[in-house]
Design brief:
Blueprint (H helix, E strand, L loop, with lengths): L2 E6 L4 H11 L5 E8 L3 H11 L3 E4 L5 H8 L5 E4 L1 H7 L7 E4 L7 H9 L3 E4 L2 H17 L4 E3 L2 H9 L8 E8 L9 H5 L3 H4 L9 H9 L1 H14 L6 E5 L5 E7 L4 E5 L5 H9 L30 H12 L3 H17 L7 H12 L8 H20 L1
Parallel strand pairs: 1-2, 1-5, 2-3, 3-4, 5-6, 6-7, 8-9
Antiparallel strand pairs: 8-10, 10-11
The structure holds NADPH dihydro-nicotinamide-adenine-dinucleotide phosphate.
Length: 384
């Protein structure tokens, strides 16, 4: 039986790699839905090749061009952000890969869970914004959330056959990004291009900046808290520049398990799509002799203040991680537009989350309004 997959965000880095995985396993997967924000050209090419039942382009101005190119193939074409979320609910779909970047992934995740679809989750922001709500909703709807993030996939794989109550601690590994070991003074003058040059991974722009600022690891700490039901003090971060140990679990008897492999997102994507099966692959194999020295170091929480802010937001709970995410999205965008310095990002984020009205048990609409409010506040700080 083939698994029927919807890929929300098929034109991005994760989406393209997911289609590559699917292409290599025609007996296992069938593409049902593809979506993009504005990249109509790539969406059309993907649809002509994979023949999904439906495609959605969030940008309504691109509807006509996509419709003209695909309707004659019998592919349903829709447009608008709401339609992206609705497309995840089509009846034939078994699993939805949420590969949209940022806050825009939240409502499609909610809709897919409400429709009872299993989720392959790349969009970590969903769990950062509303982890408690999303995980409760998944339980109520009997939905599995399978992580795509390499670190969380590693923990998930280490947990196979284990009992969560026997976990003492997890270690999320971090490459340290392009600015590992640098001083605050150095970071003040880094350019957009330098920040977009990641030593080990090729990814979308937003996550690449998050990796350079270590906000990515902060978001992953929050993601792990909800995915695995851990308390914040059970989650630690360790810098491992070679990026071949993707993360580790330490059990109550002191034993540790690690998941290893070359840094290639296709592996965790394939694992999540195929779960609970493990499929063969021809991905390049890891060789120990290519990595005679694996090293580990503590993160610098002072220079990479975003990591500290994420731990603080997690400890405060409620709507604060949602505010952290919104402020970060605004700050990253401003940095990418050369409107603020690299080191301004944590300053803006901290100011914004300190201004936000605290809600201890937020509803979905509280998360939506917190996101909007934080974006306005952060934009004001950036303008002044
Ligand atoms: P990209 O920026 O490469 O791709 C994002 C995708 O989302 C594109 O298809 C884009 O469409 C679509 N999109 C963007 N905004 C909207 C919107 N408002 N409505 C609908 N669709 C939208 O991101 P990545 O693939 O790098 O990352 C995707 C997610 O996966 C992120 O949450 C990231 O943190 C996570 N992740 C990524 C990893 C990686 O290696 N890239 C690793 C681990 C996690 P369009 O192309 O038209 O703009």
């Amino acid at each position: 039986m083939k698994k029927h997959i919807a890929i929300l965000g098929s034109t991005g880095s994760i989406g393209v790699q997911a289609l590559n995985v699917i292409e290599n396993h025609p007996d296992h997967f069938e593409v049902e839905v593809l979506t993009a924000n504005w990249n109509s050209e790539l969406l059309i090419r993907q649809a002509v090749k994979h023949r999904p039942k439906a495609v959605v382009i969030a940008d309504k101005e691109k509807y006509q061009v996509v419709s003209d190119a695909l309707s004659y193939l019998g592919i349903t074409v829709m447009a608008g952000e709401e339609q992206v979320a609705e497309a995840a609910c089509l009846s034939d779909i078994d699993m939805v890969l949420i590969a949209i970047v940022g806050y825009a992934g939240l409502l499609p995740s909610v809709k897919a869970i409400q429709a009872g679809k299993d989720i392959a989750l790349a969009n970590k922001e969903t769990l950062v914004i509303a982890g408690e709500l999303i995980t409760c909703m998944a339980q109520e709807n009997n939905v599995s959330i399978i992580p795509v993030d390499s670190e969380h996939s590693a923990i998930f794989q280490c947990m196979a056959g284990e009992d969560m109550s026997r976990v003492e601690k997890i270690y999320l590994t971090a490459s340290g990004g392009p600015f590992r070991g640098k001083s605050l003074e150095f970071l003040r003058n880094v350019t957009r291009r330098e920040a977009l040059t990641h030593p080990n991974w090729s990814m979308g722009e937003k996550i690449t900046i998050d990796s350079a600022s270590m906000m990515n690891k902060g978001l992953e700490v929050i993601e792990a808290r909800w995915l695995f039901g851990l308390s914040p003090d059970q989650i630690d971060v360790i810098v491992h520049p070679q990026s071949v140990i993707h993360s580790m679990v330490q059990f109550v008897d002191g034993s540790m398990k690690a998941q290893m492999g070359l840094p290639d997102m296709k592996l965790p994507i394939q694992y999540a799509l195929a779960w609970p099966e493990r499929l063969k692959s021809s991905f390049r194999r890891f060789s120990f002799t290519d990595y005679p020295n694996l090293s580990f170091e503590k993160p610098d929480y002072e220079v990479f203040r975003n990591l500290t802010l994420a731990f603080e937001a997690l400890a405060r709970g409620g709507n604060i991680p949602c505010a952290l995410n919104a402020a970060n999205e605004v700050a990253v965008k401003a940095f990418l537009q050369n409107r603020i310095r690299f080191t301004d990002m944590p300053v803006m984020i901290e100011k914004a989350i300190n201004r936000i009205h605290f809600i201890s048990e937020p509803s979905l609409s509280d998360y939506i309004s917190t996101d909007q409010e934080t974006r306005i506040i952060t934009s004001e700080f950036i303008q002044t």
